Amino acid sequence: MQLFRKPKLTKKKIIILSAVIVLLTIFCIFQNKYLTVTEYTFTSPKVTTASDGFTIMQISDLHNAEFGRNNSRLISKIKENSPDIIVITGDIVDSNHTNIDTAIELCNQATKIAPCYYITGNHEMWLDATESEKLYSGINSAGVTILDNTTVILDNDIYLTGLGDDHLYNGTLAELSKTVPENALHIVLAHEPQYLEEEYTLSSPDLIITGHAHGGQFRLPFIGGIVAPDQGFFPKYTSGEYKSGDTTMYVSRGLGNSVIPLRLFNTPELNLLKIKTK
User: Fold this and answer.
1) Which residues are registered as beta bridge partners of 220?
2) Does residue 229 carry a pLDDT above 60?
3) Where is the Calcineurin-like phosphoesterase domain (predicted)?
4) What element of type H or E holds 84?
């Protein structure tokens, strides 16, 4: 005696199921490939006439992702916003499926738009010696300035410091900050945001630009990001503006994926930072 009947897949049910699968696929592709540009305005009395209106475009956590052939859509988005400089805040490659050529080609295109500055992320730290040499040589040849625990003075008197990902929490920023005049605007590029209060704020930079958290990977209303590298579940720093003392930090949601290959309600992001006098 048959107690349960096997569900029968009618033609109508097959059509509905197929439509749901197609819609979910389109939704997932959209979530991972639709480029957004988020604008922020940072104001400070330290901003001089020469630096008032200065714009910075941030590229973070590309992880070898491509947006159009040779990242043509990504480059177009950057061009549309006419930044004064472009900062690449780490993880331009992914150590699990490394494609050095994609990273270098992006740098070649980006330097045609504006001066570019680069810092390492954790994935660059995980490359083998041969891959590292090829990547850094290619980035340098493309005309990108690699800021490896160094500070440069931009033409508008902004002090720009870049921290290597292996020097975020060992007092390196404190040492570099000693060379920055108190009345000068000090901007720091650091790949990982979770050291804001325990390390970065101690040196009192004006502005820190970071990534690494991937926006929390999956974002929910009223909750925000769900999980981030080195912060675990329900991370504190995932996207947008954070303040600690006299320091403001901006965290980019980034562009690509790494361990988790899918974003939800968290489209790839470029950050455009506008510097204005107070």
Assistant:
1) 224
2) yes
3) 55-215
4) none
In this structure, how many other beta carbons lie within 10 angstroms of the beta carbon of residue 212? 28
Look up residue 73 and give its two tokens: 């859509």
Within 10 angstroms of residue 261's Cβ, the number of other Cβ atoms is: 11
Strand order in the sheet with 150-153: 150-153, 159-162, 186-189, 207-210, 247-251, 240-244
Amino acid 29: pLDDT: 84
The HSE-up count of residue 29 (CA atoms within 13 Å, CB side) is 7
Residue with tokens 């973070």: 60
> Hey, is 184 helix, strand or coil?
coil
- Asked whether residue 266 carries a pLDDT value surpassing 90, the answer given is yes
Q: How far apart are CA 253 and CA 267, in angstroms?
A: 8
pTM score, two decimals?
A: 0.93
Sort 165 into a burial class: Cβ within 10 Å, 0-12 / 13-18 / 19+.
buried
Query: What are the boundaries of each domain within the chain?
Result: 36-277
Q: Which residues, 6 or more positions from 234, have their beta carbon under 8 angstroms from its beta carbon?
A: 223, 224, 225, 226, 227
- Give the homologous superfamily in CATH for domain 36-277: Metallo-dependent phosphatases (3.60.21.10)
Tell the residue number behind the tokens 């922020």, with chain if given: 40
**What does the alpha-carbon distance between residue 225 and residue 234 come to, in Å, rounded to a whole number?**
6
Question: Measured between alpha carbons, how far is 212 from 70 in angstroms, rounded to an integer?
Answer: 23
Identify residue 46 by its one-letter amino acid code: K
For residues 198 and 217, what is the distance between their CA atoms, to the nearest angstrom?
24
Rounded-to-integer distance, Cα 162 and Cα 74, Å: 23
> What is the share, in percent, of the chain residues with pLDDT greater than 90?
84
Which helix (H) or strand (E) covers residue 119, if one does? strand 116-119
